[in-house]
């Protein structure tokens, strides 16, 4: 059985605005990477994400970017002692001119107890990110602040 998941959320903003809130490090750090992001998620770039509520730097290797449509990157699996990466795809789909469906898929964990636990943890994290994105874009609220 492949360990992968999909979370999704509708955001009542145009697709370009939602895409930019993930792609742009200044905007991403307003609701998700609360201790900063080392740069825009440009195709071929390596970016460091930092979280005020999570220790250490998170290295993100961006593989593919289709503006306003898709961001694909890899990062170390939470059970990285095993030395492998998982793949994250963030897709942006216009439902109407002012509503965007954001789909976040992560895959690639090893089928081990640690891999399973890591996949569950990341599923929770990505759903939190999607909710924080929605709250920040629609209402100007940083849900992550004080969340953990």
Written account of the structure:
This protein has 148 residues and is an alpha+beta fold. The protein is 29% helix and 41% strand. A 7-stranded antiparallel sheet has the order 1-7-6-5-4-3-2. Helix 1 (15-23) crosses helix 2. The longest helix has 27 residues, at 113-139.
Helix content: 25-40%
Give the strand tally.
7
Task: Give the number of helices.
Answer: 3
**Main sheet properties:** 7 strands, antiparallel
Low-confidence stretches: none
CATH domain class name: Alpha Beta
The CATH homologous superfamily: START domain
Mean pLDDT: 93
How large is the share of residues in beta strands? 35-45%
Strand-helix topology:
Layout: E1 3-11, H1 15-23, H2 25-31, E2 36-37, E3 46-51, E4 54-66, E5 70-76, E6 85-96, E7 99-109, H3 113-139
Antiparallel strand pairs: 1-7, 2-3, 3-4, 4-5, 5-6, 6-7
Helix pairs in contact: 1-2
Keywords, please?
148 residues, alpha+beta, Alpha-D-Glucose-1,6-Bisphosphate, Chain A, domain 4, seven-stranded antiparallel sheet, 29% helix
Outline of this structure?
The protein has 148 residues and is an alpha+beta fold. It has helices at residues 15-23, 25-31, 113-139; strands at 3-11, 36-37, 46-51, 54-66, 70-76, 85-96, 99-109. A hairpin with a 3-residue loop joins strand 4 (54-66) and strand 5.
């Amino acid at each position: 059985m492949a360990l992968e998941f999909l979370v999704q959320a509708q955001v009542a903003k145009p697709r370009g605005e939602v895409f930019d809130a993930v792609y742009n490090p200044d905007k991403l750090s307003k609701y998700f990477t609360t201790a900063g992001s080392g740069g825009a998620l440009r195709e071929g770039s390596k970016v460091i994400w930092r979280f005020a509520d999570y220790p250490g730097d998170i290295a993100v290797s961006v593989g593919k970017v289709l503006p306003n449509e898709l961001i694909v990157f890899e990062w170390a699996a939470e059970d990285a002692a095993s030395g492998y990466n998982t793949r994250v795809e963030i897709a942006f789909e216009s439902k109407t001119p002012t509503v965007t469906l954001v789909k976040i898929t992560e895959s690639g964990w090893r089928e081990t107890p640690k891999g399973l636990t890591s996949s569950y943890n990341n599923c929770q994290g990505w759903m939190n990110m999607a909710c924080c994105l929605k709250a920040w874009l629609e209402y100007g609220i940083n849900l992550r602040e004080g969340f953990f």
